[in-house]
Amino acid sequence: MALRKSDLDALVYPPGKSRNSAHFVADGAVPNLYVRVYPSGRKAFVLRYRDASGRQRVFTVGDYGHLTLTQGRELARRKMADVVGGDVLTRRRQSSAPTFERFAQKYDDLHLTNLRSARDTRTRMKRQVLRRWAKRRLDELTPPDLLRVRNELADKPYEFNRLLENLSSMYSRAREWGDLPHDFRSPTTDVKPNREKRRERVLTRDERERLIAEVKRLENDVTRIYLQVLMLLPFRMSELMRARWDGYDEKRGFLTVEALSDHKPTKPQPVPRQVAALLRELPRVDECPWIFPSSRTEGHIRSVNTAWRRVRERAGLEDVRIHDLRRTIATRVAEMGASAHAIRDLLGHERLDTALHYVHRAQDHNRALLEALAEEG
Asked: Which DSSP string do the residues of 150-193 spell out, in sequence order?
């Protein structure tokens, strides 16, 4: 008879049995699948089978709790399919797949460098991947490993989703570059991401004025002007940090920066008079190409987190993120009647769907205004 969830929940390690002895209970639904019950109360799905030489093998599929009964059975079926035609444990020993530590460097050199999100991805890889699995081979990671991480990051659902995307990309590149077989199934395929709620934070006029007032109080001119420009032009943080004087055409009123996605110049961004006035306040240091130079290193500024935290606290807007400034600009121009194509170009997006989101928001905003007007008679 097949185990039910209630049966699984009720399983206990037999009283009086030696704690050094393994206790297995057959699943009854999937051949070779058992539940191993530990003296500590832990329960794990395991496969018990004999290899081609007749030796008994035990393979742990994953812990109950991290896996549901249905998930445990599905993964067990797939593992047994792998075993047919050759022992999976033997194949692991014969594997030539690189370790995460070794492949992460290759992935960085050949792929990550060209991404806009390179910095965040490197940080995540170091914190979430290499800390856990640096010495493990790519073909040794399993869905239960990822489910355990998902549980650990239960209070950070977005972080886990980005990690899952990063790992999926790594496995795709590994197959493409020959580090894994072309038919290798990524462990990320069997793990569902957390449900996400799209962030819609848009600043009101009063909130913008409060932030601007606090930004103007900053003592560091470079940081102050950087944040003021970021509130007026829809650049991404890193793109504006990398802005150079040779990309600024003051006479024509355009600023071109380097896109982090492909390191090519973005479309020239129109520079309003207010921004031009702010840029004139910045001194041009000989042989320094950066509009926003760092006072600590020879390059450009790399972080304004401390200053931004101070601005938010003083303004009483601690939930506002810097990226919300960009979203606010896009929303405002949409409400002014800008087309989706114009918003796409303004934001530097390649696809139109993101820009359409702002147009739809503006339409909803206009509909609410008309409804309010109609109610007034």
From this structure: HHHTTT-HHHHHHHHHHHHHHHHHHHHTTSS-TTPPPGGGG-PP
